[in-house]
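Action item from last meeting closed. Structure (232 res):
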């Protein structure tokens, strides 16, 4: 189950294709786009932490555009690499960590009513942990020759759910809007983890699935390789 239909994702991808072509003509490397996108996420996290919530939402949405651009540039310019996939996936996790850290800091600095503070911080921790696991489940599945592009809170949904409301309405009265967004994200990402585990469990039982041999130096629980550039 995907909240954002694939045709909508494809349509938005076509909208940013002209920008991707500009980057290709300027010989901008996908890894540079990935790096800039991560810096924008970190700037968003800092804005949230400082209480500039609308700026945080805006920067988060901008980072989402970069998150799409690096993959499209890599594919269109035939610059997809194993390291590019690894680098992109790693920086995605850096961005997620910074973002929820910034939001937690906002709550700790008085951005939410005192009686909600503990739950708000716990919500940030759960949302962060679940987001990282969501990314890991896809990477691990791809390392096993499977796919796991399912779930109600993939990366695009998380960016939109957090970015759009905060851009237009800020944190809400005494941080109430941001508080509830974080709780919804914590729940939705946790559900997505379960959805992906169940999806891979069903797919792994298919007789046609062939698992690649695991190298001797690959630790259990770690993907041997990433087969696509983009994270969830």
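Sequence:
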């Amino acid at each position: 189950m995907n909240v954002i239909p694939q045709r909508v994702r494809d349509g938005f991808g076509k909208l940013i294709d002209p920008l991707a072509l500009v980057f290709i003509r300027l010989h901008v490397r996908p890894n540079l786009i990935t790096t800039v996108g991560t810096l924008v996420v970190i700037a968003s996290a800092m804005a949230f932490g400082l209480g500039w919530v609308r700026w945080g939402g805006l920067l988060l949405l901008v980072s989402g555009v970069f998150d799409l651009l690096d993959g499209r540039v890599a594919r269109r310019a035939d610059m997809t690499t194993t390291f590019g996939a690894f680098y992109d996936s790693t920086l995605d996790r850096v961005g997620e960590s910074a973002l929820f850290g910034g939001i937690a800091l906002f709550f700790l600095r008085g951005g939410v009513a005192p009686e909600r503070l503990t739950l708000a911080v716990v919500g940030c921790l759960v949302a962060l942990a679940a987001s990282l696991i969501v990314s890991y489940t896809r990477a691990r599945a791809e390392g096993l020759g499977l796919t796991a592009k399912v779930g109600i809170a993939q990366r695009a949904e998380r960016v939109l759910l957090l970015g759009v409301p905060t851009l237009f309405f800020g944190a809400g009265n005494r941080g109430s809007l941001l508080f509830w967004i974080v709780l919804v994200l914590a729940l939705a990402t946790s559900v997505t983890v379960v959805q992906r585990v169940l999806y891979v469990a069903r797919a792994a039982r298919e007789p046609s699935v062939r698992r690649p041999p695991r190298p001797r130096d690959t630790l259990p629980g770690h993907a041997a390789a990433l087969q696509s550039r983009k994270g969830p």
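Note appended to the action item: The mean pLDDT is 88.
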